[in-house]
Amino acid sequence: MILGLGGMALAKLPDLLDVIQGTPGQADFERFMVDAGRRGLGYVEATRELDIRTIFARLRREASDAVAADLLNWKLILDASVEKCLADNPQHDRELKAMMQGLSYGHILYPAEAAMVDDLYSGFRRRRGGFTIDQQAALNVGN
Known about the structure:
Elements: H1 2-21, H2 26-38, H3 43-69, H4 74-88, H5 93-100, H6 105-108, H7 111-120, H8 124-127, H9 133-140
Helix pairs in contact: 2-3, 3-4
């Protein structure tokens, strides 16, 4: 009987730890929803914004991984990643385009991959009349 109770208690231990520790990401979600409420967003608008942010985060990860694998073709990869993102998410097309309008690759790629692209163009600023590589890319991304 004692062994049976001990076994039952051990079987429930993972559930008890989840209650004590909380579900991973739950606190972040709650903070996001509280912030959305402060900004006057309802549940539907807040979850739509969360979807859009999630899509953008996925774009950043996938584009950064692809650029890290083939640095010399970073511009083609980034353009293709943005187009794929828009095609895969037509329900958020307008919001995603508005979010990405005018962003440079440095705002889409992760910092490490953006720095790798910067390193390709050391001296770019001197040759292009004062434009930084970020400013030049901002003129092209999203068009």
